[in-house]
Amino acid sequence: MENVETKKDDVVLRVKDLHVNFYTNQRCNKVLRGVSFDIRRGRTLCVVGESGCGKSVTANSILRLLPELSRIESGSITYYKENGEPVRLDQLEKNGKQMRQLRGQDIAIIFQDPMTALNPVFTVGYQIEEMLREHKKGLTKAQYKQEAIEDLADMGIPAPEIRYGEYPHQFSGGMRQRSMIAMGMSCDPKILLADEPTTALDVTISAQIFDLMNELKEKHGTAIMMITHNMGVVAEMADEVAVMYMGNIVEYGKVEDIFTNPTHPYTKALLQSIPVLGKGKNQKLEPIRGSTPDPFHRPKGCQFCPRCDYACPQCEEEMPPEEWVKEGHYTRCFNYKEVMASGK
Amino acid sequence: MLNFTLRKLLGMIPMLLIITFLIYLGVELMPGDVIDFLIPMDQLAEMTPEQVQAFRVAKGLDGPMIVRYFNWLKGVCTGDLGYSLQNNMPVSELMAQKLPATIELSLAALIISTVLGILLGVISALKKGKIADNVLTVAGMIGVAIPQFLFGIFCIILFCLNLKWFPVGQRGDGTLLSELHHLFLPAFVLGISMTAGVMRYARSSMLDSMNRDYMKTARAKGLPEWKVNMLHGFRVACTPVMVLIGFRLPMLISGSIVIENIFQWPGVGRWFTDAVKTQNTPIIMSVGLFMVLLVLLSSLLVDILTAALDPRVKLS
Amino acid sequence: MTNTKVKRTALDRQMDKIRDMEESGKLSTHLTNRTLRKLTSNKLAVLGVVMFFAICLLCFGAPLFTKYSPTAFALREKMQAPSLAHICGTDQMGRDIWSRMLYGGRISIVVGLGSALGAALIGVTLGMFVGYKGGWLDNLLMKIADIFLSFPQMVLIIIIVALVGQSLQNLIVIFILTGWPSMYRMARSKVLSLKEEEFVQALRAFGISDLKIAFKHLLPNTLGPVVVNITLSTAMFILQEASLSVLGYGVPQEIATWGNIINVITNSGTIRFDWLGYWWMWLPCSIMLILFVLSINFIGDGLRDASDPNQIG
Lengths: 344, 316, 313
Hints:
The structure holds 3 protein chains of 3 kinds.
Chain A: E1 11-22, E2 29-40, E3 44-48, H1 55-62, E4 70-79, E5 87-88, H2 97-105, E6 107-110, H3 114-117, H4 124-135, H5 141-154, H6 160-164, H7 173-185, E7 191-195, H8 203-220, E8 223-228, H9 231-237, E9 240-245, E10 248-254, H10 255-260, H11 265-272, H12 313-317, E11 323-326, E12 329-331, H13 336-341
Helix pairs in contact in A: 4-5, 4-7, 5-7
Chain B: H1 2-29, H2 34-38, H3 41-46, H4 49-59, H5 65-77, H6 91-126, H7 131-145, H8 148-162, H9 176-210, H10 213-220, H11 225-243, H12 245-262, H13 268-277, H14 281-309
Helix pairs in contact in B: 1-14, 6-7, 6-9, 6-11, 6-12, 7-9, 8-9, 8-12, 9-11, 9-12, 10-11, 11-14, 12-13, 12-14, 13-14
Chain C: H1 10-23, H2 34-41, H3 43-60, H4 62-65, H5 97-133, H6 135-150, H7 153-164, H8 168-195, H9 198-205, H10 210-247, H11 258-262, E1 266-267, E2 270-271, H12 283-307
Antiparallel strand pairs in C: 1-2
Helix pairs in contact in C: 2-12, 3-5, 3-12, 5-8, 5-10, 5-12, 6-8, 7-8, 8-10, 10-12
């Protein structure tokens, strides 16, 4: 039988050494090259990285929502149910009964652009009810409607009875995202995957959405995995951070550790390239030199090597393995000690 | 909605006037004198100019063109479509006999082509790249390449003469079964190239819909694949396809002219071509009016269907 | 444990193959020009090109392929079934059908292609320039185009043919007359959408004349859909010519065209059932017509797929 990781404290989902390939256009694109992380109950894991590094693919892989011309090559995704056996999500049939039961009920996902993610020809109320009808069978029509309205109200949407019968294009951006969250949370999932939920929204609205998500975490103990490319969001929301680059997690640990003591050159470079409020206009902003490589012409060894200030000959030959700096904090760099030593 | 419809209908009137005038002008300019079609040569040779003139007046063929046109227009408004120059029967009566046949044929072809086209197009999309898709695509392309009359002849040879499944042309004798039996083959043939077009459009519309984000959201809710494809994918995909029903109706009317001849279908198509040959003005005008009216109404139908099926569209 | 073994499907095997090829570095040397790649990999389009040129060769190089004249009749040899002397037999006037198919094909192809090109020339030119300028001329032309498009095509064509009489030139003119409005609308809508692009503003700011903007800069952008439209219109006109011949409104019967050959089995519309048995008089020609139209459709489709930026290449 396949190995199942034994449960450690409050881990709800464990991803280990995940490899995912995309096969579009008759080419093979290795999008994820060995990704590992844990999602814990009542805590937020932020996955941060540039566009194209594989963040969304990670979230989609968990729920097996990858497009047809792609597959999980190896690795494991284990979901630890509260009462019951752990489930290997990567080994379930992609759209089979078991996976579908888990979708929405145990693990829910919200997407970046609620305008395209919601179906334009159905009312918002109908789309929330759809989720309820799938997982909470046996209620009457009126009960479903009542629940849907309550879900909308819980997310702070005013006049939910009216909003229930309206279409997505009649909502404002913030309300649309709230209704997506309402839909996602309607069946009390244990894990919420949020794929850049506020990228398409204004800053003030974003703040409201984040407050909402923190509330969920506290009230329901939901585990949250938030994908973002914005370090500010990470600082605000994260309990744990996973920094991704070109299909690998290059650094993973608690948010305080990562921010105060980054061990990977990429993390360090990211932190140095962000303006900090209050530091004034003379703060040094250092953009990362070079650009992300073409996915079909990748460097041989460490993916960040061509742009790295700490590179050494070994980096060009092989990808560094996961090195545990301390409990719960790993990095993938041969020279991490140097990075730590060079301080701020 | 009502407001919009009324305004659109009113807007059609100028167009109708211009077009009917142009048709009248066209008939007027046709070479030859309509008298030649009405009175046999030898008789004409024997008549005096006064007799010919009296004949003209009796038939309403004298006077300047504009006057005659307005007379005709007046007639239309009161429901009098004139009399066939050949046999003096009231056009409205003849119209009442033949129009239903053409409408029946066109509607049947519309229904067959739309239903079949959407069905096959969706199947093609769902099985994209596989054998079913390739076969259907090529079949569709062949369908568009065959002239309708030829397809009609092929079908008649195969289904009527050889297999004897269907009667050769003509309408049924009144009972529903007989009507359908006679209607099916001509309607199918009339709609065949349309079916291919609808199928292709439905396929690309469905593929486009299946690529959208809301499909992923639907899956993420745990819905089974068939619900995702039909409820979400198909529902959005069929809107543009259905809407274009409006544009397809006139094309069918156009094609019915040929098909009615092939299948001996007693509709306005054949009547029209004969009337053009003999410069039978009242018939040409009436049929022309009806056809143009239909085209204009179809674009109105397109607008209404769009608003009905897509909640994002508001009729302005 | 809720584990299930993952099944290996045919798709899996395909993906394995691609992965192995990628890893051994074989895939990066593929054809880089996306359009060319899509065209050549579209087998139907290639087939279409082959069929198209084959038939054109047969028709325009007719003397090479047949020794008979399309109009020479020999009543003693009428209605003969296909034989070594006559590949497709003879018709009711003793004329060799194969030669009529080839020479007739010339006319049909010229009618189809010529009308499509003519309609495109007028429609696109007007659409580009007038559509770009806008103003009262644009409104007028739109109204005229709408009027033309308000007629079911057959009705319009029949009326005009009755008006001006049947002849080859007339038919081409009529087709162009009924074909330009849709070309015009298509070109115009493309121009209108391009007009708002910033590069047009820049060109205007540089003082470049409207004429030059319309033809040197906007035209290349519309060429894609225009070419596709031309191929599909050609097919449509060839089909219409055949239909008109069947009704008796096509090219005069003395001139051989595909439509005039096939219409032996109809008597201005109604089928002559007794002649259906003489299959060689209409079936081979029908097949040639269908193959030719099919080949044009394949090519047009291939062009459409290749030039459509929304399709993943």
